[in-house]
Amino acid sequence: MTTVQCQLCPKGCIIPKGQRGDCRARVNLDGKLLTITYGYPCAIHIDPIEKKPLYHFYPGSPILSLACAGCNLHCKNCQNWEISQANPEDTPAFKLQPSDIINLTLRENCNMIAYTYTDPFAFYEYTLDISILAKKYNLKNVLVTAGYLNKEPLKRLLEVTDALHIDLKFFDEQMYRKVTTASLAPVLDTILLAKKMDVWFEIIHLIIPTLNDDFSLIKEMCIWIKENTGEDTPIHFSRFYPQYLLKNLPPTPIETLRRAVDIAKEVGLNYVYIGNVWGEGEDTYCPADGKLLIKRIGYSIKEYNLEKEGRCKFCGRQIPGRWY
Ligand code: SF4
Ligand SMILES: [Zn+2]
Fold first, then answer.
1. Whole-model pTM above 0.85?
2. Which of 45, 137, 172, 260 could form a disulfide with 237 if both were Cys (CB 3.0 to 4.6 A apart)?
3. Of 3, 11, 24, 87, which is best to mutate to test ligand 1, by the most ligand atoms within 8 angstroms of its C-beta?
4. Residues 54, 278, 147, 64, CA torsion sign
5. 23 CB near ligand 1 (under 6 Å)
């Protein structure tokens, strides 16, 4: 038998001999399923954790961030399409084994690694092996992901993951499929599993004019979050800028983002942010006394009013997240 089926993500690609899966990174070589990006990251940078964005996860930390080419989603608005939608063999890459990544992280004085830019689930084995090794060195692992993975591999990876930035791109199946080629239900399952396994996560919802700026759906999504993962789940409403295949749409009006923030707060979510807008909606407030806890401008922290392990210094309320 020469055809193989990949069981990694819900796409379940059936791959004939010599062909590749939908993510471009997994191939059928003589009847064996192989990942061709293992050890070949195409991007490595050091970012502030705020750029991921994660706001409740060791604020102010530099994080070694890496990606391999390919992705199991094909979002029409992808901002990293040059690497996510490219064939790995056509993309310039470094040659770095997991131990090299650990050495690089330590050398750069980072204590955490992000698997990001494309989707780490498309370079799953590499992410998993680095993550396992990272734990031995007391390093933290962060996935920046669209959350589209089957349960068993997800569970294995979450066992060695400390935090997730998870994109909840649409709150209706039809639009999910149309714009991303993925689907909503598995993404919700990923969120539920992260919650169950007590892995820290923050939800990012990019608002794209005419595609998902329906306020009734935004409200439904916020209600789902509150009921299923709790009022303390941070949500970031991000501003869309025209790019890749959606250059015909305008940037998200600031008013739309503000209205989404109001809706989330009315529903009862405690930590609601705006992303991709300089100087607006970036700060963290204490839900108990309304005091400013973390003031951010762009990716830097201007004021920090949390005590050790994340207590409000004014009233002592424990703020959810992971803190120094
Ligand atoms: S990981 Fe890639 S090859 Fe495997 S099912 Fe998903 S898209 Fe297909
Ligand atoms: Zn307080």
1. yes
2. 260
3. 11
4. negative
5. yes
Spatial distance between the Cα atoms of 305 and 140, rounded to a whole number of angstroms: 24
C-alpha triplet 255, 51, 234: angle, nearest 5°: 60
The ligand 1 atom at the shortest distance from the C-alpha of residue 121 is 1
Q: Reduce the DSSP state of residue 195 to 3 states and report it.
A: helix
Q: Whose CA is nearest to atom 3 of ligand 1?
A: 21
Among 109, 101, 82, 129, CA closest to 41: 101
Give tens-digit pLDDT for 214-224: 999 999 999 99
DSSP 318: B
What does the block give as tokens for 232? 């303390």
Structure tokens at 233: 């789940």
Q: Give the residue extent of every domain in the chain.
A: 38-282
Helix (H) or strand (E) holding 115: strand 112-115
Tell me, using a 6 A CB cutoff, whether residue 154 lines ligand 1: no
Q: Which CATH number fits domain 38-282: 1.20.58.340, 3.20.20.70, 3.50.50.60, 3.30.465.10?
A: 3.20.20.70
pLDDT in tens, 95-136: 999 999 999 999 999 999 999 999 999 999 999 999 999 999
CA-to-CA dists, residue 71 to 46, 47, 311, angstroms: 21, 21, 39
Per DSSP, the three-state class of 156 is helix
